[in-house]
Structures are given as structure tokens and as C-alpha cells.
Amino acid sequence: MAVPAPRVRRRPSTLGRLLPLLLIAALLAPVGLLLTQTWRHIADDRDLAARERLGVQYLRALAPVTDALVDAQSAAVNGRPASGETLARAVEEAASVDARIGVELRSQERWAGLRAKLEALRDRSPADPAAAFTAYSEVTDLLLALHRKVRESSGLVRDPAADSYFLQDSVGQELPEAVVAAGRLADLGALVARRPAAEQPRGLLELTALRVAALAPAADVVDNLRSAVDGSESTDLGANVLTPLDNYQRSVEALAAYSMPADGTATVDPGRLGAAGLNAHTAARQLQPVILAELDALLVERIDGLDRDRWLTTGAAAAFVLLSGWLAGLLISADRRTRRRAAMPIPGTDSPDEPTPADAWQPPIGAGRAGDHRALQPVGAAREPEATQWGPFDAAR
Fold it and tell me: pTM, whole model, 2 decimals?
């Protein structure tokens, strides 16, 4: 009788054991790359916003210098005594800011050149108004160039949000240019009124050019701020900006009107033009800190949001690592249990040479009592006792 072969458990292959771990690694790699790129993107955006705040600090320090310089120019052109204390104090405050963050904004060289020019202006005699106008124009050009440098090096010109971009463009470029040009326009009106009649036409052409140079950035300031208010999600921006913006817009409209020659004449009233220029300067001085404050508030809010995103990314990465470790632990434990079961023999198959109780030979029914053992004999030998026992009976028949 054939004896069935013992059943042996199949051991899992090496590839079968490593396949779950390989799948986890294949999932871990792209998710880890995605989380790393997200972290870097958030970090870059946060660094840009923090750098922009440095630019806002520098622009806030340059605002008093601009105001004091325009006032000093007007005083020098009109022959009034100028208070050098205001300009000196503004210069010292800006110098302290440049010493603190100028290296990071790469503005120290430009500031050093501007400060040297400002120091030279304080020692200049106001005897020649035309020469003073030219000298102050050169210094204000350097000041506007420093504004552009700060915007570029701080990243304000690359601001990704619409509202903050319009705000930085207004406060860092358009408004300083408008203030400087409005001061020049008012001072040039006073200078042209003193020229001989033969030079009046040329003076009017100069006034027209300065009028365009003053009104164009002022109009850009109004358009930018209205665009910032319309495109911003902040509810405080419109309420804080629109009122000083309306005052500034009205003062600019008055400046535009008084910078035109009067009807029937080819001259400009220098008194009214000077008063209009002063009003425009005062309105700009009230508007500028509001814009800077709103811009800084938007940047602070953006930094807070990026910090929250960074914490969320960190939490997601930690949760993914823990989940992957837990899943890998389950797979490793399951693999170990499978290997232990494969190493254990199946019950009943320890001695394949011995027949199992189900396969053992059993005597036929009625072959004898239990414990009656007879030797196996050939078929013919088994019939001989039966023939000897019934022999006489067969003979009688």
C-alpha cells in the first residue's frame, strides 16, 4: 500500500518577504520628497516676507529724511532760514537703521554717498537760490535711487500678493517721487517768477515738464492704493487708507490746477503754487505712515500664516513617519510569525517511515479474537487442515 508523502509548509521567498517593505519605501520616497519641497517653499516665502519687513523698516527711516530734505530745499530756494536740526536728526536715525540692517540690504555704500552729500548741503550758503535748487535736486535723486535699491534688495518689488505689492510700490517708489517732484514744482514756480520776461516761456516749459513728473506718480499712488483696497482680504486696509488717500488726492488736484498758467496770462502764481505744494506735501506726510503700517501688518500676517503651514507640514511628516513605522513593524512581525510556522513540522509527519494509524493494516472481520496472532501462510497451506478434517466424511459419501 502506498504511503502518502508528508505535507511540508512552503517557506516564503526572500522577494516575498521584502516586497511589503519595498512598497513602503516606494511610498515613503515621493511623500518625503513632497514634504521636503513644501518645507523649502514655505521657508523661502517666510524668508522673503521677513526680508521685506526689513525693507519696510528702512523705508520708514527714509521718510523723515525725504520730508526734511524737501523742506530744506524750499527754504533755500525762497530765502528762508532752514532748521538744520530736523534734517540732522532724520539723518542720524536713518544712519542707525542702515548700520543695523544695511549689510543685509546691501545699502551701506549708497547711504554713505547720500550722507556725504547731505553733510555738504548743511554747510552750503543759501545765497544763490538757483544753485541751491540744483544741488538739492542732485541729492534728492540720490535719495530716490536709495529707495529703489532698498525695494530691490529687500524683495519688495517681488512681493507675490496683489495688495502688498501695490502698497510697497506706492510707498517705496511712487509717493517719494511725487513728494520730491511736487516740491521741485513749487520751488521752480518761485524761481521762474523771478526770471526776466524773456526767460518766462522757457520757465513755463520747465514747469510743464515738472508738472507731468509730479502728477504722474501721484496718480499712480491713488490707483495703486485703490487697487490694493479692492484686491485685499483685509477689512482694515480700506478703512485706514481711504480717508488720507482722499485728502492726498484733493491736494494733488489743487496742485495740478495752480501749476497751470492763469487765464489770459503766461505766468503761474508762485504763492498759490507754493501753498498747493505745501498742502500736497502735508497730505503725503500723513498718508505715508499709514501705508507703511498697513504693509507691515500684511507681512506680519503672512509670516504668521507661513509659520502655521510649517507646523502643519512638520506634523504631517511626523504622522507619516509614525504610520510608516507602525506599518513596517506589522509587516516584520507577520513575516517573523510566518517563518516560525514554516520551521515547525506538521503533526503526524515526524516519522514518514512509520504508517499512521489510519494507514495501518487491520485484520478482516471474524479472523480471530483480539490478541490471536497467526503467522502468515501461503494459500495452499492454509487449506490442508480443512481437507484432513473432512476426509472421512467425503469417503462415506
Answer: 0.75
